[in-house]
Amino acid sequence: MVIRIRLKDGPFIQQKRGKNRQLALAMAALLTPAAVMALVLGFWRFTSDLHWTAQFAIAKGPFSHWQVWVAAAITLEAAAIKLNRYGRSKESVQRAG
To answer: What does the alpha-carbon distance between residue 92 and residue 85 come to, in Å, rounded to a whole number?
Structure first.
């Protein structure tokens, strides 16, 4: 025996676009200051090697090299640029305007 239950037609489910774009813009806004901080640490380590500034806070390990900090800064800023481009892409501008 098969029982069928009939329900009223409710509102259609609509898929909202743009949530990922807003998240991408938020993450990009946080990555840029992180990249600046990494660059400052790299610059501090470089000047510490030249004995221009005080001793660097991290004495041993992979994060004790200025190249690692500069590479991290470049990577973070590249990610922020990519996320900004995605968040401000043509599709989101057309919907807003």
So the answer is: 11
Cα separation, 79 vs 77, in Å, equals 5
pLDDT at position 6 = 82
pLDDT tens, 8-59?
Answer: 877 776 666 667 888 999 999 999 999 999 999 999 999 999 999 999 888 8
**What is the Cα–Cα distance from 36 to 74, expressed in whole angstroms?**
9
pTM of the model: 0.72
Q: How far apart are CA 73 and CA 31, in angstroms?
A: 9
- Using alpha carbons, select from 81, 83, 49 the residue that is nearest to residue 65: 49
Q: Is 48 exposed, middle or buried (0-12, 13-18, 19+ CB in 10 A)?
A: middle
Query: H-type helices in the chain, by residue range?
Result: 19-49, 66-87, 90-96
